[in-house]
Known about the structure:
The complex is a heterodimer.
Chain A: E1 3-10, H1 14-28, H2 34-56, E2 62-70, E3 73-80, H3 88-91, H4 108-115, E4 118-123, E5 129-136
Antiparallel strand pairs in A: 1-2, 2-3, 3-5, 4-5
Helix pairs in contact in A: 1-2, 2-4
Chain B: H1 2-16, H2 21-29, H3 31-39, H4 47-64, H5 73-97, H6 99-117, H7 124-131, H8 135-144, H9 174-181, H10 184-187, H11 192-202, H12 208-215, H13 219-239
Helix pairs in contact in B: 1-2, 3-4, 3-5, 4-5, 5-6, 6-8, 7-8, 11-12, 11-13, 12-13
Amino acid sequence: MKNVLRTSFPSISKNEALARGIAAQFTALLDPTVEELSDIRTAVSEAVTNAIVHGYGHPNGTVTMELTSEDGVVTAVISDEGRGIEDIELARKPFFTTMPEAERAGMGFAVMEAFMDSVSVDSAPGRGTRVTMKKKLGENAR
Amino acid sequence: MPGERVSNRELLSEYRSGDESALSALVENNLALVRSVAARFFCRDDADDLMQVGSIGLVKAIRNFDPAFGTELSTYAVPMIAGEIRRYLRDTQSVKAGRKLGELSRRIAAILNEAEKRGLEPKLSEIADELGVSPEEAAEAAALNSFNVYLDEKPEDGESRELSELVPDTARTEDEAVGRVFSEQLLSLLDKNERELIEMRYRLDLTQKEAAARLGITQPKASRMEARALLLLRRHIINE
């Protein structure tokens, strides 16, 4: 049975924890393993952090998160109307960061890609960013 | 490292012959040890507190240590550091997280440990049933066990190291950056498999598929292992 949750919130730091909590509770409805739950929680956290910190970098933006579950697949779409990414391929490389002074280790996309089955990024400078991530539950990694 | 052991030995004998000032030098010398033990217990908000508490364990170890034990100070100190931290977590984590949630998270960790030994991956509903709570509560409790560092956690300004030391500016090659980040010291934080995987992926430039094949594991498992290792490394970069 399909389920959808759509939420938007201002681009403030405390909403990162809120968003990952929401994503975790949404996923919990599908009876995942604890690892699957943690994976989705972490990947969503990275995407939301990117939107807040890179997309906006100030508290006055709006971040939208849409969660869908269908046939055991969880899809999370996190979007912002912020700066946008100039070179998506470069941004997705591990350790690439535009903020060396801000102690962010440039691994956000690497983490998203490792924990989710697929990650696609739609973005352009000045046009915001939309990150779509999917994970099928019940795919045993052992 | 040989250099460290010699100075531990010297400082210890100074301390044991009555020089109290050698104590602080000994603690300084061994903070990395405290960090590596505390790292096993890291929860979202606790890093600094755990370091402080762990250092108390180190001091106790230094005070009690006798070279006649026949071990290194560091070997002796590890259980004492861990013991202090466990005691602290037992007493306070439940207060921070709510007594029930803290207790639940520990029980979940125990269930998962047992399950892993038997090669099982329990579902949330099974865990919730065993604990007698709702799946929602179990999901929140499980989050407390997360060893992930989320980027909205900021280290204390005085303590953190400039990441610009570790991350390249645009003029440097990615290779050099990867080499610097994956220094021996950081790699020693990983277990044998994780270390092999990171080296295959980032030094030898193997694909995940190739690396997984060499390790004899499935690709999803390798992918997960890689992400966990990267998170662990990042946590240490940010918290050092």
